[in-house]
Amino acid sequence: xLLYGLAAFLPVAVLVCVAAFSKxxxxxxxxxxxxxxxxxxxxxxxxxxxxxxxxAVKGMFVSLEIGAIVFGALLLFELFxxxxxxxxxxxxxxxxxxxxxxxxxxxxxxxxxxxxxxxGFGTPAMIAAPILMALGFSPLAALSMCLIGDSVPVIFGxxxxxxxxxxxxIVGAAVAEQAGILxxxxxxxSSLFIVSAIAFIANKDTGxxxxxxxxxxxxxxxxxxxxxxxAFLTALFIGPELPSIVGGIIGMTLIFMIGRKMYPLxxxxxxxxxxxxxxxxKPFIPYxxxxxxxxxxxxxxxxxxxxxxxxxxxxxxGQDIGHRFVPLYAAGVIFITSSFLYMFLACISSGKMISxxxxxxxxxxxxxxxxxxxxxxxxxxxxxGINMSGAPSMPEAMVMPFAGLPSGWWLFIxxxxxxxxxxxxxxxxxxxxxMTSMQVxxxxxxxxxxLAVVALQGLGAAGGNMIAIHNILAALAVVGAVNGMEKKLxxxxxxxxxxxxxxxxxxxxxxxxxxx
Length: 516
Fold this sequence. Notes:
The chain is mostly helical and 516 residues long. Helix content is 76%, strand content 1%. Helix 5 packs parallel to helix 11. The model has no long low-confidence stretch (mean pLDDT 85).
């Protein structure tokens, strides 16, 4: 059995080593890992070629659904940028308070929640970091705050992809939704540290001392719950697709009122709010349409009706492997529809439409290829138990050495594993796809609550975004990289990340004691 475990570990090791220790990106690493996986599946696990091909096609089907979401999110972002959305956002945030720390929390916490929820894939940093710099923060502080602030909403980002597909592809939709609720609950506790970190960086960057930071703590607590509590209620009563969006919208509204009350604008800052409300709102209209349609389709009786219309493939290459697509309920279709509806209502010229679509398609290529390869890898990997060798699935074989270890010990480690996946792969969705099956198997072998382990995997994967190499490089590109800044940014965020993962591990340990 040890031999099987080592063989199962090889494709994962190839993925990690190529991605982390070579100049090749996640696409090249995924190709290398997939080649090694197919070889091991055929010659060691003795999986049939038709079944491998069928699981590969199923992975491609899922990747197309995700690709539609990414494409829709990119369309919305292109329309937002074309309407000078960044300028409008800066105008709004200057009206909150004269205190820079209050402005930073609004942008790097609440606004980032909303942008992550509707777009994901690096969008928050692309929009929020330049806004923070325009508000007077240094590039290093602006980037650090955005990446740290985006460590919570990522798990429900891009309309819940890391949960609905990241977890759902492994443990099923029902368990994924339950994990989403538990994650949102834990976020109400852990978010206090994240908002405190943002306030600390903002206060320090503007010349504040420890005493001035402490005075912001009442505001920090209120700002944290203004976002995390509505997000929890959304996860509990609606599902994993809307918590970051709803939390961001309600949070921005509440923080605006709280900031105005606790730290009023000075006369000098009041003079800067010269733009009209209509001017500031117009760039957000595509997002408003998308959120409205998305929310409407999640109303129970509408959801039931829409789910009754679907396309289904019941057998692929003669195997009992299929896939179902529900177009009218799919978030990607809703995003794309919202974008074209806005372009039609706004009377945007056909030339401009083509330009927006072309730009979005160009940006779509790399993430779609990476996700497709990873999803094909995951489908073959987790279904490797269907073989003629009598061996367990590869995830099971990998974790057999952990059998017999004390129950509950893995709850402290699980967030670090999720973070490692995000650090290597550059995203929570891919981390969840890669690591969840292993996490579940270890939980089963050690008698640990599987739902708690899945939730902590997701929390760690989301937190890992603040130190993920791909995210840091993308964020630096947006503001204009300065020599050596990537090392400073990594070092700065790494300290906060370690503390955050320890907090998550401690929460997991307490959960284990309560459950056990």
